[in-house]
Amino acid sequence: MQKLVEEIQKLKKERNAVIVAHNYQLPEVQDIADFRGDSLELSRMAAKSHARVIVFCGVYFMAETASILSPDKTVIMPDPAAGCPLANMISAEDLRELKSRHPKAVSVGYVNTSAEVKAELDYCCTSSNAVKVISSLKDAEEIIFIPDKYLADYASKKTGRRLISWDGYCPTHVKILPEDIIRSIRLHPKAKVIAHPECATEVAALADEVLSTGKTCEYVKKSEAKEFIIATEVGLVYRLHKDNPDKKFYPASELAVCPNMKRTNLEKILWSLEEMKTEVRVAEEIRKKAKKAIEAMVAIA
Ligand code: CIZ
């Protein structure tokens, strides 16, 4: 493995590339990355860097987001087949049809959407700022929120706003069941329970905190607690252990493994740098519209 790591480092320099890895990536992929984080954090860090090439280790919509924010850089994905089933649950056509049934509604969409869907939105949001974005829409008569019904439910409860939601969900997060949380609490009674807002409503209701991956990292660092039950994709536990060696982390369910996030490995990163493949580039017309929805979110959050 050391040889592979050295080859990647050498080629990364030659290509003037930066490697970014989502918090759900395999440990060895997180270790080789220049930046780890959530999708928006990574796209923004990559945009600020002086690198000409962004190697995006995550899923497809994340590489698209990097391309939206860095049109002058080359974004490559080590495995472009790493899709996001949640993002794929709504198409631009579906959203246009939903908007036509609610012509007065303001549309808000989770970052887990394709660039084409983002181009149809008024506001983009992440799991850490969905509540803030919705709270800011005081004058909106109606609000469409797509595609995650559990994030919609959580944001609706927090803001007291009724949301017109979509029947989308993350197949990995729904594997975490209320009984997993109850069992974990029985085994680790002193641990704080942190659930991702993509978890089912009954799971989020059992948590001490409902947080995105980025906010979980911040919370754990500041918390005086020493043990945590983590209800999200298991990859985050590796990062939490690494950043907080004096604290203990227990995944709520070992079944919460996203097969798409695990498609990227060191060999594929090396090949992607050798062949400069596979490039992800968002068409200019779509990019400009999608960027507006992202900027509208940034202006609020
Ligand atoms: O924005 C991201 O990266 C996602 C999808 C979740 C999170 O909480 O990091």
Could you describe the 3D structure shown?
The protein has 301 residues and is an alpha/beta fold. Helices cover 44% and strands 15% of the residues. The chain is built from 14 helices and 12 strands. The strands form 3 sheets. A 4-stranded parallel sheet has the order 2-1-3-4, sandwiched between helices. Strand 11, helix 12 (235-243) and strand 12 (248-251) form a beta-alpha-beta unit. Helix 3 (39-48) runs parallel beside helix 4 and helix 7 crosses helix 8. It is globular, with a radius of gyration of 19 Å. The protein starts with a helix and ends with a helix. The model has no long low-confidence stretch (mean pLDDT 97). Bound molecules: (~{Z})-2-methylbut-2-enedioic acid. (~{Z})-2-methylbut-2-enedioic acid binds next to helix 3 and helix 11.
